[in-house]
């Protein structure tokens, strides 16, 4: 059986990833069928990963060292690769994942200033070097993403088990993460499709579908 296709979504919080993932999943399901599409997320996607997610994203988790934060992200990732991603790819399915190692390189490598070298070496060691076949990187202007993320943060602030820890960071942190995403796209143009600018939801979806359709055709789906 031919190996499946691994697609990831990347971008800052507030970039529109959730909406675009939902719309792409519906498009893929209609084209390929329910059984052919697997959707997961990072951190999370497994029982263990979801427990790590609750810890690392909750605004009440204070004082995490940058290296600790990065180690937790990779622990969740190694588990979802083992339990979900690799079995689905071996079964010939299309896997759509909300975030992967590019997020760690952007947020911890760029935002936390740990650098790309350590991130990529941990990825090689802990994730077996598994890379997406296609990464859809949403890069609207930085300030628009931050405003949307902070409005969401304000709505859920104080809720039990919120996921607002990163939204509390200063703009400089997000500027470094945004710049690192741009660097990744420039470094890996064959894998990363960067969708830039202040586009409408429909315009972004059209570009997402065009990129995915081309990759599906090339892979024989």
Please state the structural category. alpha/beta
Kindly report how far apart the N and C termini lie.
12 Å
Please list the strands of the largest sheet in the order they lie side by side: 2-3-1-4-5
The proportion of residues in beta strands is: 5-15%
Helix segment tally: 8
Largest sheet: 5 strands, parallel
SSE order and pairing:
Layout: E1 5-10, H1 17-32, E2 37-41, H2 47-57, H3 66-90, E3 94-98, H4 101-111, H5 116-126, E4 134-139, H6 142-156, H7 171-187, E5 192-196, H8 201-219
Parallel strand pairs: 1-3, 1-4, 2-3, 4-5
Helix pairs in contact: 1-8, 2-3, 3-5, 4-5, 4-7
Characterise this structure.
The protein has helices at residues 17-32, 47-57, 66-90, 101-111, 116-126, 142-156, 171-187, 201-219; strands at residues 5-10, 37-41, 94-98, 134-139, 192-196. The chain has 221 residues and is of the alpha/beta class. Strands 2-3-1-4-5 form a five-stranded parallel beta sheet, sandwiched between helices. Helix 2 runs antiparallel to helix 3 and helix 4 (101-111) runs antiparallel to helix 5 (116-126). The model has no long low-confidence stretch (mean pLDDT 91). It is globular.
């Amino acid at each position: 059986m031919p190996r499946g296709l691994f697609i990831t979504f990347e971008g800052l919080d507030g970039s529109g990833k959730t909406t675009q993932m939902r719309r792409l999943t519906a498009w893929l399901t209609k084209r390929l069928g329910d059984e052919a599409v697997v959707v997961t997320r990072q951190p999370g996607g497994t029982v263990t990963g979801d427990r790590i997610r609750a810890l690392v994203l909750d605004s009440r988790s204070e004082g995490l060292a940058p290296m600790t934060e990065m180690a937790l992200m990779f622990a969740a990732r190694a588990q979802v690769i083992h339990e979900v991603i690799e079995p689905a790819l071996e079964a010939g399915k299309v896997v759509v994942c909300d975030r992967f190692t590019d997020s760690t390189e952007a947020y911890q490598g760029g935002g936390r200033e740990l650098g790309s070298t350590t991130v990529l070496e941990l990825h090689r060691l802990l994730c077996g070097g598994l890379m997406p076949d296609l990464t859809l990187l949403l890069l609207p202007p930085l300030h628009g993403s931050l405003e949307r993320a902070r409005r969401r943060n304000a709505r859920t602030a104080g809720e039990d088990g919120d996921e607002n820890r990163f939204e509390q960071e200063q703009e400089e942190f997000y500027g470094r993460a945004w710049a690192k995403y741009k660097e990744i796209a420039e470094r890996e143009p064959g894998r990363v499709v960067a969708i830039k600018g202040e586009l409408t939801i429909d315009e972004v979806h059209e570009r997402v579908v065009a990129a995915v359709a081309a990759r599906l055709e090339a892979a024989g789906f």
